Amino acid sequence: MTKVEAPVAKNEYYDVTFEDLTHDGAGVAKIDGFPIFVANGLPGEKAKIKVIKVKKGYGYGRLIELYEPSPDRVDAPCPIYKQCGGCQLQHLSYEGQLKAKHKHVKEVLARIGKIEDVIVHPVLGMGNPWRYRNKAQVPVGEREGGLVAGFYQQRSHEIINMEACLIQQGMNDVVVQTVKKICEKYGVKAYNEETHKGVLRHIMARYGAVTKEVMVVLITRTEDLPHKKKIVQEIIENVPNVKSIIQNINPKRTNVIMGDETKVLWGAEYIYDYIGDIKFAISARSFYQVNPEQTKVLYEKALEYAQLTGEETVIDAYCGIGTISLFLAKKAKKVYGVEVVPEAIEDAKRNAKLNGIDNAEFAVGEAEVVIPKWYEQGIQADCIVVDPPRKGCDEALLQTIIAMKPKRVVYVSCNPATLARDLRILEDGGYKTIEVQPVDMFPHTNHVENVAKLVLKEETSCFGS
Ligand code: SAH
Predict the structure, then answer these.
(1) What SS3 state is found at 53?
(2) Ligand 1: distance of its center to the CA of 123 in Å?
(3) Nearest to 384 by CA among 52, 418, 273, 374
(4) Is the CB–ligand 1 distance for residue 340 below 6 Å?
(5) Which residue from 339, 397, 411, 447 has its CB within 8 A of the most atoms of ligand 1, so it is best to mutate?
(6) Where is the TRAM domain positioned along the sequence (predicted)?
(7) Contact criterion met (CB below 8 Å) for 447 and 439
(8) Which positions of the chain have pLDDT values less than 70?
C-alpha cells in the first residue's frame, strides 16, 4: 500500500488564500486540497504562512505576512488579546462575527443533523458588544513582592497582569484592581500553585447589571486572612455600591476555583439582579447567566416558541436556578423544573418565592431519570423546554419526550453540534424543527447559543399559527 504524502512540509512557507473560518476562529487554507488551520486568518485574505505541524489529513500554520486583509478585519481593541486566549474573534468586525456564527450554525445543522429544511434566523447580536460579563474570577499571583491579577498565559501557569478586560462590566475591573491594591497594602501573600503556599487564590466580582449591586469574593487557601477587618473596611470604603463581601476557602491543590466553605465577611449573603421583570438572588456560588442582557433576548425567544396561553403544563429540563422556568410560569398553568445540582434547586425555589410565583415546582435529579418517572405518574406536558450542558440531552430523555408527545419542544443549546444530533433524534421520533434562532451571548468568543422550535408532525399543518 502506498502511503499518501501530505502535500505540505513542516517549516515550509506557502502563499495561500483563506477559504473559511473554523468555529474557534482559525482561518482555513487549502494547499492541494489539504486543509491548514491558521490562527488569525480570515476568509478571503491572501497571506504567507509557515506550516508548523502536519497531521494525518490536516495541518497547522502560522500567519507570517498578510498580503490582502479582509474588509471585515479590525484591530483588536484589547491590548492583550493575543496572549490571553479568552476571546478568539476580536480581529473580526462584529458584523463579521455574527455572519460567521450564522454560517457555522447552518452548516452544523445540515452536516450533523441532516437538518436543511429549516429557517435559521440571523444571529441576534448586542447593540454594544463590549463590557457585558457580570462575573469576573481572576487568579492572583506575585511579581517582585507585589500582587498581580490577570489570566494564565496560554500553555503556562504564569499570571499576566490585566488592568482591564473589555468584555467585563467596567465595575468588575474596578473591583479587581481595588481589591488587589488593598490586599497588597496589607501584605497578603498570593497563593502559589507550585508550592501550595500563600493565601489569596482568586478575586471574584459579581455585578447586578440592572441593580448595580456589587459582590466581592476573596477566595483563599486558608481561613486565616491577615488584617481581615481592615481589608473589609477598605473594600467598603473604596468599592462603590458593594453590598456583599464574602470569603470562600479552598484549601485543596486543584484548579477548581471555589472551595466548599463560604463565609459572609460583611453585608448580605446575596446580591440581586433582574432578567426582564424577574428578580434573582445571586449568591457567591450560584450559577447565573453571565450576559443578562442577551439572556433576556434568549428567554423571550424561548417563551415565544413555547406559544403559551396560560392553560399549559410545561416541563423545564436542566432548569438551573429556575431562570427559564420562572419566565414560563407567568404564562403557563404549571411548570415543572428539574436540575441535578441540589443548591441550584434551592435557589430556584427561593427565586420563585421572591417573585410570588406559586405555579412552579422543582425537583432535584437527572432529567433523564426524573422526567420518565413523571411520565409514568401521568404527568403530561404540553410543552417541554430543554437547556442541557454542552454534551446535549441524554438519549433516554429524548425517547421519553418522543413517547410523551408534547405538542412543542423548545431546545435551548450552547453547542450547535449536540443540538444538531439531538434534533435529528427528535425528528426521527415524529417532530419537525420549524425554526432556529441563534443568539450571541458571548461576543468576541467562539460561542453561540441557539433556541430551536419543534412541533409534533401532525401539528405541522398549522405551525406558525
Ligand atoms: N436553564 C438554566 C441552566 C442551563 S445550564 C439557565 O438558563 O440558567 C445546564 C444545567 O443543566 C446546569 O445547571 C447543570 O447543572 C444541569 N445538568 C447537567 N446535567 C444534568 C442532568 N443530567 N439532569 C438535569 N440537569 C443537569
Answers:
(1) strand
(2) 23
(3) 374
(4) yes
(5) 339
(6) 7-65
(7) no
(8) 1-4, 459-465
**409, β-bridge pairs:** 384, 454
Cell 435529528 appears where? Answer: 424
Which domains does the chain carry?
A: 13-68 (2.40.50.140), 103-126+291-463 (3.40.50.150), 135-275 (2.40.50.1070)
Task: Kindly report, residue by residue over 34-75, the tens digit of the pLDDT.
Answer: 999 999 999 999 999 999 999 999 999 999 999 999 999 999
Catalytic, 414? Answer: yes
- Pocket lining: 363 vs ligand 1, CB cutoff 6 Å: no
Alpha-carbon span 209 to 211, nearest angstrom: 6
Nearest alpha-carbon partner for 278 in 360, 351, 350: 351
- Verify whether ligand 1 is closer than 6 Å to residue 414 (CB atom): no
Backbone region of residue 41 per phi and psi (left: phi > 0; alpha: psi in -120 to 50; beta: other values): beta
- d(CA 377, CA 364) in angstroms, rounded, equals 17
